[in-house]
Amino acid sequence: MEKHCSATFDHLEAAVITLQAEIHRDHKPNSGPELVLSEDEKSDTEDKEEAELGVMEDQRSVILHLISQLKLGMDLTKVVLPTFILEKRSLLEMYADFMAHPDLLLAVTAGATPEERVICFVEYYLTAFHEGRKGALAKKPYNPIIGETFHCSWEVPRDRVKPKRTAPHSPPSQEHLIAEEPAESYKLRFVAEQVSHHPPISCFYCECKEKRLCINTHVWTKSKFMGMSVGVSMIGEGVLRLLEHGEEYVFTLPSAYARSILTIPWVELGGKVSINCAKTGYSATVIFHTKPFYGGKVHRVTAEVKHNPTNTIVCKVHGEWNGTLEFTYNNGETKVVDTTTLPVCPKKIRPLEKQGPMESRNLWREVTRYLRLGDIDAATEQKRRLEDKQRMEERKRENLRTPWQPKYFIQEGDGWVYFNPLWKAH
């Protein structure tokens, strides 16, 4: 009887989820959903610090068993990884951390010349990765469920947006910047959505209407097993648009590697990425250097900014993406940026009770709650339920031959574009 009731409840629960999905799909992109309900947003108080305990002995045996079933180079996309390696937040939220220094991003459009603007963008780009890795321990964010969304915004004090490339950013009197009066601030809005399950494609879009600046990005993550490491390729690209200048900067993203997965896992970035602006002829090549097997420094990054029509290198950068970066300009001037002392602007996010059922923190709230309590079995069960629902809905769509309809993004060629981007609205 108990099993029958449980099965009935599961069917009922599945029906509710399916109904929610139907309602969700009725909100076609052209119906114009709001980016965020900003009046409900509050400064984020989530603590992203992860306990740096390394891998426990009983967990190591689970990982060893998993490794014994894997082959070098094997695609991990469909491999179920143990819950204890999860990071208590969705990948969609992790992408929002690329905007942790929004003052640097908004300063790009304030640059007086194309050269200054591309260098400002390279500075922002190189400082965009460290905030996503609080602490040295490598943990994996939740794989987003198809249709999952994440919304947030930032209030950026106007006096923090400085275009002068050679003027170092003076540290503020407090660790976090909080704007008291919205009128004295620029507003940067962010939305991310999981638009595809196979392959797993995430999209995110952010805009600042006052500065006429926006970024549209689509990323397909592909993981593979590399012995004592796991590599994650970030396939796709982003485009920064400066409408005031009519410029588009197309950029790619580095790969990430989780090293030493049996002891104390740590993350490093690797690979060559590019930034290109066709209109101005400026481009940048950024190389994230992986640590050599013997010796060598970790987290090294180098970059060159070039004016292609004249084949002139206008700026060189070296340092660590999560440490100190030194910029050397072609006029002999230098500038040092310490990412560890850059002020972090906290994102604003609606409380859980104001979030819809498919918004990241609300969707994963039970998994997160049990992980915080240290109840790995309960967290695993909650995660399994979410993934089972996703598979059930996917089978239903296949049977009905109805493709998934994203809420905020529209497929254009090989990429995905926000349904109401700033460049189309103006």
Automatic annotation (TrEMBL):
Gene Ontology CC terms, in alphabetical order: cytosol; membrane
Chain intervals with Acidic residues compositional bias: 37-50
Region described as Disordered: 26-50
InterPro entries reported in the protein's UniProt record: OSBP_sf, Oxysterol-bd, Oxysterol-bd_CS
Highest taxon of source: Eukaryota
Keywords on record: Lipid transport, Lipid-binding, Phosphoprotein, Transport
Biological process, per Gene Ontology: lipid transport
Listed Pfam families: Oxysterol_BP
UniProt GO MF annotations: cholesterol binding
PANTHER family: OXYSTEROL-BINDING PROTEIN-RELATED, OXYSTEROL-BINDING PROTEIN-RELATED PROTEIN 10
Family note: Belongs to the OSBP family.
Protein known as: Oxysterol-binding protein
Organism: Myotis brandtii
Phylogenetic classification of the source organism: Eukaryota, Metazoa, Chordata, Craniata, Vertebrata
